[in-house]
Amino acid sequence: MTQTTDPKYERSNHPVQTKDLIISAKGLRKSFGKFTAVQDVDLDVYEGEILGLLGPNGAGKTTLISMLTGVLKPDSGQATICGYDLHKDLHKIKRKVSLVPQHLAIYLELNAYENLNFFANLYGLKGKEKKERIDEALEIAQLTDQATKKVEHFSGGMKRRLNLAIGLLNHPKVIFFDEPTVGVDPQSRSHIFKSIQYLVKELKMSVIYTTHYMEEAETLCHRVAIYDQGKVLDLDDTDALLAKHGQKQLEIRVDAMDDQLIQAIEKLKHVDSVHYVDQTLVIHAHDLIKTTEVVLRMIQENQLEVKTFNVRESDLEDVFLKLTGRKLRN
Amino acid sequence: MNIWHIAMKDIRIFLRDIPGLIYLILTPIIVIAIASFALSGIFADDEVERFSIPLVVEDEGELTNQLVDVLQETSVLKIIKTTKDGKQITRQEAEKLVPEYKAAIVIPDGFSDNVAQGELAELIVMSDPADRVIPGVVHDILSQYTAKLSMQSVTNEVAIEALMHITELSKAVHGVELDPTKEIQSVQEKSEYYVENPPIQVVTNVVQGNDEARETTPFESNVPGYAVMFVLLGTTAAASSLLDERERGTLGKLQTLPITRMSILSGKMLANFTTALFQMFVLFTVGHFVFQMWLGPSILGLVLLIVATAFAATGMAMLIASVCKTRAQASGISLLIVLSMSALGGSWWPLYIVPDWLQTVAHVTLTAWAMSGFNNLLVYGQGFTSILTSITVLFSMGILFLILSVRFFRFN
C-alpha cells in the first residue's frame, strides 16, 4: 500500500460492495447490576461498509462491540457474524473478526515486531505466512522502519498505528474500531482514516467504527447509527439522517436565559423544538423567518443581550441533539 | 501452544526488567548475607562477640583476685579495669560508663573478708534501664560464680561445724580430746575440688542425620527462609501483571483472539512458575557456591521441595491477583500476607521458639511447610522421606489456590 503523509483524506463515497449481511444482531442486551448498558439493540451491517456508531462517552458503544467480539457475553439477544452464531460459534467468529480497542492493547516493553509476532502466534499463524502478515501490517501502519524499536519510545500516533496493525494480522472480514482517534495528532488521524478506507476498498473488509466525533462519522462512514443510553435511536446514511431529522435552524447566542422564556418560545406557533446549550438557543421551526422576528423581540423585551445569531443547515451533531436533547461532547 | 506463547512473552518482559531482576535476585542475596553474618556468632564455636564491661575493684582480698581472673577468662565478657590513663575505674566513673556499656560490675570493699567469715557478701551489677540483655548476661555469670562460692562456703561451714560437734561430744562422753585439723583441711580440699569438678554435669551432643560430622551455618536456614519470602514477593508481583493487563486493556484484546480464557491464565501461571523456579535455583546456587551452604543429603529431595514451593507460591500469587481489583490493591495485600506468612511460617526464625498454638496456626501457611522441609533436609540432615509430607502439602496447596484463582478471576 502506498500512502502519503498528507493529513487530508477523502470522504468514503465509494459504494457499499454488496447487500450481503455480515452482522445481524437482534435484541442484544447487557446489564451490569441495575445499570443496563445495552438495551435490546438490533443492528445489521453489510459486507464492505463502514458503519459508524455515533454517541457520547458512556453511551454503551464499547459494551456493544465487546459483545460482538466475544469479550462480553450478552444477557439476551442473538447475533450472527460472518454466518456464525455468536453463542455457538464464538471461536470461529474470533478468527473472522478483529478489534482495534480504544485503549492501546500493546506491550510497551516489547518492540513493534515482537508485539505483532506475539499476537500472530496467538492467531495460530506460522512460518512464511506469519512473516508476510507481520510485514504487511507493519507496512499498512507505516512502521516498517521502526519495527525493532521498543514501543515505549513510540509517539502516541505510532502506538495507535501499531494498535491498528495488530488488528489486521488475521485478515479479518469484520474489524471493529473503538474510538481509534482519541488523543491522536492530525497526521496520525489522517493515516488511520486512510488505512480504514484502504481496508474496506482494497481488502474488502467491513468496519464498525465507534466515535463521538460527528465529523469522523460524517466523513468516513457509509451509514451512521445514532447511539445513546444503550439504544440505536436511528440508523441510516448521513444524507437520509439529515433529511429525516435535520432542518435549517436558528442559533442565537444569549448569555443568560430563564426557563420561563424558553418555555414561552417553545409555545410559539411555528416552533418545532428549542434547546438551550452552551449559552446558545437552538431553534428548529417550520417558518424560520417569522420565528426569528418574534424570538428576537421576546429576548429584547426581557432585556437580554443577543451576542450573535445565525441560520444554518443541520449536521449530525444537530441530529443527535434533536434525537437525545444532548450534545455529543458534554 | 498458546500457553507457551503467553508465558514466553511474560518471561521476555521479565528478563528485560533490570530493576525487577535486581529486586528478585540481588536483594535477597544481600539480605541473606547480612542476616547470616550477623548471626554467625550464634553458630560458630570459635569467635564470639564479647561484651565490654567496666569493673570496679574496691576490695584487695584473695577471693577478689580469683573473681577478676574468672571474669577475664569468661568467653562472653571483655573486662575493662582501668581508665584510658591507666587508673583503676571508680564507682562514680563506672556510673558514667553504664549508658555506653549497658552494665558495670562492682566488687565492694570487704568482699573477700565477708565471704571468708561467712557473712553476707555482695557483688553489685550496675545496669542501664534501657537494656535488659547485657546486664542479664553479666548477672547470670556472676550468679554462677557466687553459687559455686556459696556452695563451697556452705559445705565448709556445715562440715567444720559437724567435726567440731563430734570433737566436743568425744571429749564430753569419752573424755578423749580429738584434733580435727586434718579432717577440716580434707573437707576444704574436697569442697574446692567439687567446685571445680561438679559431680553432675550437662553434656551436649549435636545430633545429625548423616554420618558426616558437619558444622551448621546460618545459611542453611537463612537461604531457604529468605528465598521463600522473596519468591512469594516476586510471584505476587508477577501475578499482578494480570491486573496490569486488565487495566491497560491488553487482557480485553486477548479475549477477542481465538484462544480460551484458560489458556490466558495458564500462560500467566507458567510464566510465574518459571520465574519462581529461576529465582529459587539462583538463590540456592549462590547459597551453595558463594556462602558454602550445605545442600543436604538428598539433592533430588531438595529439587522437588524447591519445585513444590515455587508451585505453591505461584498458586497463592494467582489467587491474590484473582481476588484483587487493581495492582495497587494487590501490592498492598501481597506485602501484608507475605510478611505475615514469613514471620509466622519460620522464614525469619525457627518455628520451635514460638508457642505451640502458634506453631499449629503457622501450618496453614505454605511458608511453614516449605521451611519444615528445608530444615529437615539442610539443618537436621534428614533424608528424602522426611520431606514427603511437606512436598505433598505444598503441591496440594498450589492446586487448590490455582483452582480458586480460576474460579474467582474477573476478566472484565
UniProtKB/TrEMBL annotation, chain A:
It holds the Pfam family ABC_tran. It comes from the Bacteria. Residues 16-254 form the ABC transporter domain. Gene3D superfamilies: P-loop containing nucleotide triphosphate hydrolases. GO terms for biological process: daunorubicin transport; doxorubicin transport. Keywords: ATP-binding, Membrane, Nucleotide-binding, Transmembrane, Transmembrane helix, Transport. One of its GO terms (cellular component) is plasma membrane. It is found in: Cell membrane; Membrane. It is a peripheral membrane protein; Multi-pass membrane protein. InterPro entries: AAA+_ATPase, ABC_transporter-like_ATP-bd, ABC_transporter-like_CS, DrrA, DrrA1/2-like_C, P-loop_NTPase. One of its GO terms (molecular function) is ATP hydrolysis activity. The keyword Membrane applies. Belongs to the ABC transporter superfamily. Drug exporter-1 (DrugE1) (TC 3.A.1.105) family. This is Antibiotic ABC transporter ATP-binding protein. It comes from Cerasibacillus quisquiliarum.
From TrEMBL, chain B:
GO terms for molecular function: ABC-type transporter activity. Pfam families: ABC2_membrane_3. InterPro entries: ABC-2_transporter_component (IPR051449), ABC2_TM (IPR013525), ABC2_TM_bact-type (IPR047817). The keyword Nuclease does not apply. It comes from the Bacteria. It is found in: Cell membrane. Residues 184-412 form the ABC transmembrane type-2 domain. The keyword Transmembrane applies. It is a multi-pass membrane protein. The chain crosses the membrane at residues 21-44, 223-243, 270-291, 297-321, 333-351, 387-409. This is ABC transporter permease. It comes from Cerasibacillus quisquiliarum.
